[in-house]
Amino acid sequence: QVQLVESGGGLVQAGGSLRLSCAASGSRFRIVAMGWYRQAPGKQRELTATITDDGSTNYADSVKGRFTISRGNAENTVYLQMNSLKPEDTAVYYCTVDGKDSVLGYDRSWGRGTQVTVSS
Question: 16 CB contacts (<8 Å, ≥6 apart)?
Fold first, then answer.
């Protein structure tokens, strides 16, 4: 399994910004996509943003215009710039990596998560 290490979470006041980072290592598969999911208290885990190997991005409607996903120069890094944060953005944010192997098919790996808390 690939190892994912997230960083950048923390406590911020409403209207503030945070930047999440994720670095992957140990994958035997070609990385075809990376992304961020989040899980708020009492809610299901949901997609926040994804970016594919060809640069295509997708965002949840709730974060469009406020969050930006990007990849670093290294294929195994991904960032999530979060601006104009709202209390409803409070959640555990998980980094994901999608890998593809010609024989084994697709595989998704998950990070352990980083807490983002937005105070009102």
Answer: 85, 118
* Tokens read off for 6: 């997230």
**pLDDT at position 74:** 77
Tokens, residue 115? 């807490």
Q: How confident is the model at residue 113 (pLDDT cuts 50, 70, 90)?
A: very high
Residue bearing tokens 């961020």: 36
Longest dimension (CA), the chain: 49
Q: What are phi and psi of 70, to 5 degrees?
A: -155, 160
The whole-number average pLDDT for the span 85-111 is 94
In 3D space, the residue among 110, 93, 81, 101 whose CA is nearest the CA of residue 31 turns out to be: 101
Question: Residue 119: which of 93, 85, 92 has the closest Cα?
Answer: 85
**Of 111, 65, 112, 85, nearest in space to 17 by CA:** 85
Question: What own/partner pairs with CB < 8 Å and gap ≥ 24 does 49-55 have?
Answer: 49/80, 50/96, 51/78
